[in-house]
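I am going through a labmate's work and have reached the protein record below. What it holds is a sequence and that sequence's fold in token form. Please read both lines and tell me whether the tokens look consistent with the sequence. Do not assume that whoever made the record got everything right. Thanks in advance; the entry in question is below.
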Amino acid sequence: MTAYQHILVALDTSQQAPQVLSKAHDLAQQHKAKLSLLHVIEPMVDAANYAFDGTIAVDLLPLQNNAETVAKDNIKKLATSFSIPDQQLYTLFGQPASQIHQFSEQHDCDLIVIGSHGRHGLALLLGSTANAVLHGASCDVLAVRFKD
């Protein structure tokens, strides 16, 4: 087996994020690989056009900025607990699977580590970020499974 050189761990801010990062961190140490942490924030929809029929202006920028600040703080705390420097932490806006694919290609990642919920029923039919990453990635993907 060829050693991985650059591992991308795609994190959300769920309670399972430490478990996903721990697995990625262990692999990075085993392979002496660079480890990058990525959190993708989905942009908020312009609610003014939907909730208020456009008659009341709603500025979502403060909410978006707050979501970004909270996410960055949470990811930084998590990274600090694994001694991962700030230079290896990334936060992007957009559709998660698409941003993960784009980042992994632009940064020559050869493994993506992502959390995966054990989904059943409707949630399974609708798909998930992990599933979309798996089917669109140009490199290996490790889905760290945990039950909801």
